[in-house]
Every structure is written in structure tokens, then in C-alpha cells.
Amino acid sequence: MTGRPSRRQLFGYAGAAAAGAAITGGVVAGDFAALGKDNGNGNGSGNGPAVLAADIDSYGDHQPAVAAPSPKHAELVALNLLGGTDKAALGRLMRLWTADIVALGAGRPAPGDTAPELAVPGVALTVTVGLGPRIFILPGLTSFKPGGLDDLPVMSHDRLDPAWSGGDLLLLVGADDAVSVVHAVRRLVADAAPFAKPAWRQTGFWNGTGPDGTPVTGRNLFGQVDGSGNPAPGTPDFDTTVWSADGPAWFRGGTTLVVRRIRMNLDTWDELTRSEQERAVGRKLSNGAPLTGATERDELDLEKRDADGRLVIAENAHARLSHHSENDGRRIFRKGLNYVQDTGATRESGLIFLSYQADVAGQFLPLLARLDAADALNEWTTTIGSAVFAIPPGFREGGWVARELLE
Amino acid sequence: MVAVALPLLVSSCGSEEKAPVTQAAASTPGVIVEDAWVRSTAGAKDTTMTAAFMSLTNPGDTDIKLTSATSPAAGLVQLHEMAMKDGKMVMQEKAGGINVPAGSHAHLAPSGDHVMLMELKQSLKPGDELPLTLKFSDGSTHDLTLPVKAFTEEEEHYHPTPTPTPASSTTPTPAS
């Protein structure tokens, strides 16, 4: 944050109807304060009761949604550049999007909003912008590509559909309210029309809030607690896992995002017994604890054997194969969004798997290859979409997304 | 809109920003300009004129006026308001400029006060950018770069015609 208080901190947005009122809604104690977390620019705990659900500050060293809890509702849109969009045009788009992101994130209509009443505060709306590998083919950008930022090789279990794969740009919009997500996406895509057009869209949902209102890891549609092994935001482990510290200077504080659309066969999964389901992952369905432990955060005991001498966490259990101790210490920060795709009466269910890491090739790819070769879950999961994006660092007041790359 | 108590506003700031709001006001920080944009001339009958919009916030304790605006892209820039004349809404130059009341906002928005750009040197397409300089009564100036956006405005506001344009002119930008 800059030292100067922003308009948003002094005032809420007085909409046209409420113009004249000095102080109105839209200004709240930080979301992270309310959740007992710290996003790096809040003061950790609010001075008073939280007001509304809370907005997340658009400004900071990093794009804020990466380390934030998963939103209840989210949409990803991949866009491909139009023919005439060069480096300078991309800069105009990023300035345009930044102004939209700042306004919408504060609960104000985007500039030129055609449905301004749909912009509301208190929904924790975030927008994350990503740049696909092909951006770095543009003249003037070829020497600025983050190392290892390439489309992933096709895995043996992949059944990739081009309709869910690739993309030059990514918008990941999240909020605790689906209307707000749809509205923000509509504005951002409309404003991008002179520069880029959508290639695919994926909508997902996640419940990261426990019955008592505290943050929880959340569950995928198999019923598994999903994401227990993550490094915790705010820890050195998280920082070294996620934020780029070397490579091109513009990318310091950025990260990479892998998007995998994973179809889940719930019909055959449901035919398993509960213990078979737990063995496939190596964790208990009840609370996500390792089969060798009692609580979700207990460390896995990968050596433990049962009375018959069998490994309690099986050789091919997902939790074992993806554990950093089995991967030369390589870690990722993974999030998920459940999805359903309905065609008439037919429903497909799955997970939009999101993995953040400083280096795709160095951290994610070896893990993916290992899981592809042996993961027990492969019997019930099929990856049908895959895309990779560089997530530029955050921006400050007066700055804009990827300015250090494009200016 | 939900009104919130003043002390809470400060709690969302970083630790170095705990100065009370009143202190910020005393230092007369000037007008804060946000959410500025300019309407594309694409599809307009007269592509030599358009309007710019924005939100102005005055955190100080004295009213400040937006007194003038200039742009290298326009031969003439005026501050306009919409007013009822003979039962009809018309656009006219706003005498004395646009006031931004102390501790409050002025919203420049379609069908309301706006910065009128005339004698444009070229048409403005969505995706273009337009430089605009604002001058305020406290002596401050703001150099802005405005995005050009598509927006379907009530056409007759800017281009009065004897017969109103067909209903199609009020169709919003296609949803995406």
C-alpha cells in the first residue's frame, strides 16, 4: 500500500442514486483479518466487527487471489489474441483490465459498466490475470518468457479436448456470489473485445467454509478433503513454492498456474466400498487425516504397515505419490473448483484442478508424470483439458498488470 | 448501500495508514480521480465528438471545482451538464465548472455531467486510449490516460435530431 489513503479507504462508492452521501458501503475490514489470516498488507486483525463479507484488496506484491481462500464461485476464461494485438495493444488491454479489476474488486461498477447495479461490495471479488506461453512469441517479448512456461506434454491418461485447452490470456474471477462473478466476467470479456476473444470458459464452485464459519480445506465431488498437503500461505514454504524469485525480472513475485479439467467417474467411484475409496487416496474421508494419522494436518507415515505387513498408505495411493518427500522435495500449491457440465439430462462431474508453482517444468511436471504413471485415482479420473499460464506479480496504485513486462 | 462507522474505514488500511480521516482531510489532498473512461465514436453519427466520464472524490473539507479539461486529441473540450429545457433533456456547458463537494463525490456519468470532447482529430475506437488533463479550482491538475469503451448512449443527448432514433439505439452492448 502506498502511504496515501486511497479514495476507497476514505469513502465507499457513492453510486449515482446515493451521490451526496459521504460514507456508504463498500469499505470493510480486511477479509483476511476476518479469517484470522494476513494477506501481507492488512494489519492482521480488524479493530471492530467485520462489515459485510469483506472485499479483498486488489493491490499488493502478488495478485491477491492466489494466496486467498478459494472463492465459493469462480469462472475461468481463456482468451486468444486477435491478429492485430501486439505488445503495445496488450499493454492497453492490461491497463483497461486493471481499472476494471480495481473498481469491481471494491464493489464499484467497471468504467463504462452497462449494468452498474450488478457491481456490489462485500462479495470478496477477485480477478487473476494470466499470460499463456504464446504471449512470449510476440515481437518484443520473446526474451522475457519465464523458464519452463510451456504447454504440458500429453500424459498417457489424458484425453485432452482442444475446447478446454491452451489460451493466450486467462481471467480467473472468483467471489462469494455467482452473480458478481458473471457480471465481472461479462465486463472484462466485453472490454477485451478489441484485443482478444474467448477460447474456453469453465465455471466451478468450492465450499471452503466450515459449519462454524471458519476456513476449511473443502471437498471435491468424490467427497475427499482436497488440498490438505498444501504449504500454508504466509509461510516460507509457501513463498518458495509459489512465488518466482529468479528468471526474468518482471516476473519476480509472479507465479505460474496449471489448469487441468479432470472428469470424475462418480458412477464407478460410488461402487467402491468406503475403505477402497480411502485406500485409493491414503486419507480418511471423514476428516482428510492420513490413514496413518488422526487429524487432517498430521504428517503421513509412509513406512507404516498393518498387521499383515501391507503399507497402510498404499504404494499407489494418491497422497503418497504426490507427497513432497517422494518427489525430491518438490511442492505445489493446489486449489480446486468442482464443476458439473450438463447436456440435457446427462451430467458430467469433475474438478478444475488449479496448481500454482514458481516453475511449471521444475515443480509440476515431474509430479504429474509420476501420478500419470501410477496414481490409483487414474481409474476414476480423466484429464480432458490442460492449460498453463504465467501469473504476473501484483500491482500498486497507479500501476497495472504486467506493466514491468509491457512498458 | 450499508452505512459504516468511520473508525472501521481506517481498520482496512495498513499499519502506516492509521492516521484518522480528519487528518487526511486537513492536509487537503485534492480530488481523487477514478474509473475514468471515454465513449467510443464507433457507430456515432458525428465521429468528431464524444464524452468522457469518471468519479471524482474530494476527501478535503473545502469544495473543489473541476474547472476545465484539455486533450491533445480534441480541438475543444468543455464541461457539460444535462438540463431540462422546454420539457426536453438537453446538453449545455456547465457554468462555473463541476463542483466536487467537500467529503463527497461528483460522478460524471452518461446522461449526467460529463467532459465533452469536440473537434476530435480522429475517431476513437474501443481499445484506444485518450490523454486528458483535468484542472481543478485548488490549482491542481491531473494527467489521465482514458480507455476508450463502447457504450450505447441515448443518442439524442449528444446529437439532437428532429425525430428520435429507432429503439435499436438503446440496445445495450451485447452480453458476453
Total count of strands of chain B: 10
The domain count of chain B comes to 1
- How much helix, percentage-wise, in residues of chain B? under 10%
- Our measurement of the CA-to-CA distance between the termini of chain B, rounded to an integer number of angstroms, reads 27 Å
What portion of residues of chain A belong to β-strands? 15-25%
| Number of helical segments with 4 or more residues of chain A | 10
Structural class label of chain A: alpha+beta
Specify the CATH homologous superfamily of chain B: PCu(A)C copper chaperone
What kind of assembly state do the chains in view correspond to? Answer: heterodimer
* Order of SSEs of chain B: HHEEEEEEEEEEH
How does this model look, in words?
The complex is a heterodimer of chains A (407) and B (176). In chain A, 21% of the residues lie in helices and 19% in strands. Chain A is α+β, with helices and mostly antiparallel strands. Chain A has one domain (66-407). In chain A, the strands form two sheets. Chain A has a four-stranded antiparallel sheet with strand order 2-3-1-4, with helices on one face. A four-stranded antiparallel sheet of chain A has the order 6-7-5-8. By secondary structure, chain B is mainly beta. Chain B has three helices and ten strands; from the N terminus they run H-H-E-E-E-E-E-E-E-E-E-E-H. In chain B, strands 1, 2, 3, 4, 5, 6, 7, 8, 9 and 10 form a ten-stranded mixed sheet that branches. Chain B is globular, with a radius of gyration of 18 Å. The chains are: A alpha+beta (407), B mainly beta (176). The interface between A and B is large, with 62 and 55 residues.
